[in-house]
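Predict the holo structure. Ligand: D-MYO-inositol-1-phosphate.
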Amino acid sequence: MADPWQNEYDFAVQVARVAGAVIRNAGEDETKVQTKSCAVDLVTQTDERVEKIIIGSLKEQFGNGTHCFIGEESVAKGEPCILTDKPTWIIDPVDGTTNFVHGFPFVAVSIAFAVNKELEFGVVYSCLEDKMYKARKGKGAFCNDEPIKVSDVNDINKSIIISEHGTDRSIEKVTKIFSTMQKILCIPVHGLRGSGTAATNMCLVASGASEAFFEIGIHCWDIAAGAVIVKEAGGLLLDVDGGPFDLMSRRMVSANNKVIADRIIKEIEIFQVVRDDAP
Ligand code: IPD
């Protein structure tokens, strides 16, 4: 049977490439910073411009009004962040905005597509490295058209674990985040890393460079595309308490296998965050 979402998948890859070129070619003016939820939650003209390009092209291509859109910058401006059964695009135009502003060389365009609340495909374009990661449900994961798979390491002592500290700098949360990182580092693991973009972090797990990435405080647009890529590369997604992964919960562990995921989960100090779809 023909894939009902093939056109959407192919088009998402094309749009991600166009968006990545805009980010790569952004002039100095376009990295000028404004803040959103707090002093370290950054946004630039480029985030807004790229989101407009992506959503505009998707609407033009699939513009019969049946598709919904959840985009980081649209939500920041008050658009709803509710996942319904309708075909829905979930978009982070510039994942790693802080990196982008500082010239730290990991920035990704993240585009996912869900139908009936199930993720159908994900595209992550790590545009400064020119790496196009993509995965279609049931059809494997790829980087620049080469198949990728998660690492087969089962021994936590031989792992590299990725995490991030996000933008919430309240002392209670930062203390829990660093306490978790300290415990994981002292298991010991080979190393702790963080690229500054959740989407890229997930692709690093999918391609076997790291065994796991976890974070509390990420948003659905940071991880939706990466979630398909990790799964299709043979990995798994869980909630930070070991329960089922919930895209809107802002909590996630992605890992190469359950042994590594469970060992990480044992150390995670959970703190409360407001869900993406909270009223
Ligand atoms: C951020 C990045 C970062 C993660 C934050 C995200 P943004 O996304 O993915 O790695 O730690 O939680 O908000 O704001 O650059 O799109």
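The pocket of D-MYO-inositol-1-phosphate is lined by residues 72, 92, 95-97, 164, 166, 196-198, 215, 217-219, 222 (CB under 6 Å). The chain has a mean pLDDT of 96.
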